[in-house]
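User: Predict the structure for this protein chain, please.
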Amino acid sequence: MSALVIEDVEDAGEVIAVRARTRDEAVACPGCGAQTARVHGYYERMAADVPVDGRRVVVRVRVRRMRCPVLGCQVQTSVSRSLASWSVTSGASRG
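Assistant: Here is the predicted structure, written as structure tokens:
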């Protein structure tokens, strides 16, 4: 199963714009392994991919920042491991 849910794909002429978000499910804390569905906040990542049919592809992903429920855990907040090393282009914004 993909870590992302595709919400919209728009053909904007010279650009194909894809809007996605992370799944709304509990994840394991990378510090202690405790499961958490507690959201600390959200931010957006944007990446440009290889052209399709001669047009640019821009992917915007709304990513959840999770909070660990375990007091004393070294990792208080984290993002999905599958997205932590995702290549980001300029234009990423907090929100």
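The helical segments are 81-84.
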